[in-house]
Each structure stands twice: as structure tokens, then as C-alpha cells.
Amino acid sequence: MVTIKDVAALAGVSTSTASRAMHNNKVISDETKQLVFNAMKELGYEPNYAARNLANKTSNTIGVILPVAGPEIFQNPFFMEIIRGINQECNQRQYMVTIASGDTNEELADNVATMVKRGRIQNFILLYSKVNDPVVTYLHDQKIGYTVVGKPVDYENETPYVDNDNILAAKDATEYLIQAGHQNICFVYNNEEQLVSLDRFTGYRRAIRSADLANEYQYQAPVDTSPTDVETFGSWLSEHPEVTGFVTSDDIVGLMVQQTINQTADIPRKVVSFNNSLFSQMSSPAFSSIDIHAKQLGIEAVSLMMKYIDNKNSLVSKIIVPHRLIVRD
Q1: Which of 72, 79, 170, 239 has the greatest number of CB atoms lying within 10 Å of its CB?
Q2: pLDDT, tens digit, for every residue of 25-61?
Q3: pLDDT digits over 293-315, tens only?
């Protein structure tokens, strides 16, 4: 049976150095880490994480917390892309990933508490940010480490986070429509609790007011869109024939808007959305979307979290991932 001593001997380092390299300790150089990882691969060595976790009363698992939603959230490519980035970075750092989800705030908070108490998970990545979140309250009160994808609502100065400049991104999307000649533009969203929706509305509003346009329009779609939502939005649209441009909070909402527009083809209208997912690319016609680089958000979230795992005294910091407007005419 291959042991850590065999790995150390093949890599030409001491056993303690090999152990530190496997744990991605920052005092070990990248060159030495690579030597150890190559030796592990050649010998087929797999660290016994269960034994290490039992001894340390900790876990090498990162908990990833999804927003409250039904099973349809696993069909949302935005979250799948973030998780793909998280998995990729965690694999490189010899960490595992487990998912926490729930249909209600209470269920989600209970699931997270169970992961802490039974799974000994001490580090989490939240894939959302919203007001009055019991999960954040629990993690903060229990002094559990967490990083947020999105700007924190509470404890911002204490919380490391990764985000886009959603205000600027929405402003860019709205200004693109204005420059294309649209004078009446509506912001369509589906979750007012999410801080990201509030930021994107702020960006939309800034662009409208900066251009001295007379009207602002808002439409709140249901959180879980369905065929009946197209009919309902179609009724709203028939009451507002002057609206020809739409900034939507994400591609799923954008698809609902585009499907409605397709039924009123007599009036030229245009959609700009967020996430640049398959929903915007495969729609007929395809519509423009802001690429917020979801996979990179996941990678950066893990990198930021590891900084605090390695050094609990690190200053709290944030990472802003740039966005890009993908134009589809």
C-alpha cells in the first residue's frame, strides 16, 4: 500500500513537506507542490481525508449554498457554471464540494446547520445575497467562514465576496438600447429580494435619467416562469405599446420576454439580458446578453476563501470580475 513516505521519497522531500504540499500550505513553493502532486499521480496515492478530518475535527469540504428555490434551480445554467468553476478550483486544491439547497429559508438554514454540526464543514460559499437572510445570520453568529458571490447585504466590511459591477453592467445594457433608438425601456425582473436585482435596477435607472428619458418602466415576473407568464406579460405589453426596449434581470426572464415579443412582431422590440447562457443564445431570435463570466466567479470565490483558510488574520477583501456585453442583432 502506497503511503505518504513513498510519495515524499519519490518527490525528494521530507514527509512533513509532502504533507504540507498536499494541504496546499502557502509556505511550500509551487515547484515543490508540483513535485509532490506528480509523485502522487505516478504512485496512485490518495490522501485519507476522512482520517485527517476525524483527527482535526474539521473537514476538507466546502459547502456551496444555493438560493431558496425549487428543483428548477438545477436547470439554471448560471448556477451550474458557477459550481463548475468552484469544482475546478477545489479539485486543484484537494478540496471536496457539497451542495446545500432548500425550498424555504427555514429548510435551507436547517440544512446548513446540519452540515456544520454533522459534517464539520467550516467554510461555505453563498451563491446569492439577499435581505433578511437567516443563513447569513447563522453563519455570522456561529463564526463560520463564508464567502459570498454577490455584494453582501449585511456585514459587508467583515465578508469576503466576489461580484460584478452590476450597476455599471445594467447601465451599459440600458445605454446600448438607448443608442439603438429606444426611448421607452422597461426593466423586467423576478426576485426583488435579491440584491443583484436591486443593483441592476439602479443601473437601469441611472441610464434612463442620464439620457433625460421621460418614463421608467418596471415589470416583476414570477420567480418560477411558466407558459402562463407569457400570456400575463403579453397583457401588460398590450397596455404599453410604446415600450420597445427591455433590460431583464437574467436570461430566463429574457427568454420569457422574447417569447412574448415574438407574438407581437408588428412592433420592433429588443431585449438585453444577463448571464449569456444558452437561453439567450438558443432563443429564436437570439437576444443580446451581459456575460458576467459565471465560471470565473466560482473560481475566484474559492481562491478568496482559501486565502482566509490559510490565514485567519487576512484583511477582508473583494474581487470584481469584469462583464462584457454580447450583442446579437
Answers
A1: 170
A2: 768 888 898 898 899 888 888 765 545 554 445 568 9
A3: 999 999 999 999 998 888 777 78
Q: Which ranges in the chain are annotated with CATH 3.40.50.2300? A: 56-163+294-322, 166-291
pTM: 0.80
Q: Is 239 helix (H, G, I), strand (E, B) or coil?
A: helix
Q: Which residue has better confidence, 120 or 261? A: 261
Nearest to 66 by CA among 57, 58, 75: 75
99's grid cell: 451542495
CATH of region 56-163+294-322, choose from 3.40.50.2300, 3.40.50.1000, 1.20.1740.10, 3.40.50.720: 3.40.50.2300
Task: Please name the helix (run of DSSP H) or strand (run of DSSP E) that holds residue 176, with its range, or none.
Answer: helix 166-179
In the chain, how long is the greatest CA-to-CA distance? Answer: 76
**Which residue reads 511550500 in cell numbers?**
28
Q: 137 is written with which cell numbers?
A: 445570520
Considering the segment(s) 166-291 as one domain, its CATH architecture is 3-Layer(aba) Sandwich (3.40)
Cα 180 to Cα 265, 273, 301, distances in angstroms: 18, 15, 36
- pLDDT of 55 reads 47
Q: Is the peptide bond before 285 cis (omega within 30 degrees of 0)?
A: yes
Q: Are 64 and 41 in contact (CB under 8 A)?
A: no
- Residue 192: pLDDT over 80: no
Could you say which DSSP state residue 186 is in? E
Residues 323 and 160: their CA atoms lie apart, in Å, by 20
Give the alpha-carbon dihedral of 186, 192, 195, 201, to 10 degrees: 10
Predicted confidence (pLDDT) per residue in 3-13, tens digit = 888 989 999 99
| Cell 453592467 -> residue | 169
